[in-house]
Amino acid sequence: MNFLAIALSFLLVQDSLPATLQSWWTTLTGQVNNTTNVWQGYIEGEFIWLSPTIAGQLAVVNVKKGEIVKAGTPLFTLVAEPDNLALQEAEQKLQAAQARLADAQKGLRPEELTEIKARIAQTEADLSLAQTELNRTEKLLQKQAIQQETVDINRATLQRQRARLNELQAQLNIAQLGSRNDAIRALQAEVKTVQAVVAQAHWRVAQKQMTAPIAGQITEVFHYAGEWVAMGSPVVALLPSTQIKLRFFVSETGLGELQLGQSVNFQCDGCNNSLTATISHIATEAEYTPPIIYSQETRVKLVYMIEARPSVELATQLHVGQPVSVWRLEK
What we know:
Blueprint: H1 2-13, H2 19-29, E1 35-45, E2 48-50, E3 56-61, E4 68-69, E5 74-78, H3 81-105, H4 110-142, H5 148-177, H6 181-206, E6 209-211, E7 216-221, E8 228-229, E9 236-239, E10 244-251, E11 263-267, E12 275-282, E13 303-309, H7 312-315, E14 323-329
Antiparallel strand pairs: 1-10, 1-14, 2-9, 3-5, 3-8, 4-7, 5-6, 7-9, 10-13, 11-12, 11-14, 12-13
Helix pairs in contact: 3-6, 4-5
Subcellular location: Cell envelope
InterPro entries: HH_YbhG-like, UPF0194_transport
Coiled coil: 87-178
C-alpha cells in the first residue's frame, strides 16, 4: 500500500495521471498539488420553470430538450382564437363608445345648426317688417286715419317677433355647446371602462405566447402540442448559463479560510485543470450529520454549504450534478 501511494503521488506530481484517477486520488488524500484542503461538491443550477399564466391548449412547442436559445426566442404558444375574437369585439365597442362621446361633445350636426340659423334669419326679416309696419301705423294714427287698436296689434306683433328671435338665438347657443356636462362625463366613463376591457383582452392574447426571458439551455420539455396545460403548470425548463454554480461543503475548521468574493480552484472529471470560480454565498447556518449532538467530539461533523459561480463561458461546459473537487491555493 505504501508503494502504491508513493507511485501515485509521483505520477500526480508529474501530472501523468488521467483526470479520473486524479480526482480519485484527490478525494483519497484530501490534497491537490500544493493545496492544504480539498472540499467535495457538485454542480448545481437554478432553473427557470416557464409556465402559462392562463390555462389553454398548446398549439405548438417551438423548442426541444437540450436546445440553446437566446433571449426572446419563442418557446411555446397556446391556442389563441377565442381571445383574438374577444379582442376584436372589445375594440369595436371602444370605437362605438368613442364615437358617441365625440358626437356629444361637438353638439348638433351641421345640418341642424344650419336649419336653426335659417329660422333666425327669417325671424329677423319678420321683425324688421313688423317694425316698419308699426312705424307706418303710428304715423297714420297721428293723422287719425286708423284706430288705436290697429297700432296695438302691430306693436304686439313686433314684441312676439323679438321674443321669437331671442328664443332661436338661445337654441343656437345651446346646440353649439353640445350635451350636458353630466352626460359627457358618463360617456367618458364608458370609454374608460371599455378601454380597460381592451387592455385586458390584449394582455390575454399576449399571454398565449411565451418567449425566453434570458439566454440559456432548454433542459426539459414537459408538455407537447395538443395537450391542455393548466395555469402555472411548467411547459419547459430553462437553465441560464449565469445560473450555474458550484455547491460544496466546508467543515467548521476550514470555514475561516473562505470569504465572499474570493476565488477558488476546482476540477472535475474530463475538465481542464486550474478552473476557477468566485464564492457568491456562504451559509449562515450549519448542517449536521446524525446524531446531532453539540459536543467537542462531534464538531467535526459540522459543515457549511458554500456556493461559487464560474464565468459564463466556463459554465456552458459544466453539467448539473457533476461532481467537483474544490480547493484554495496556498499563497
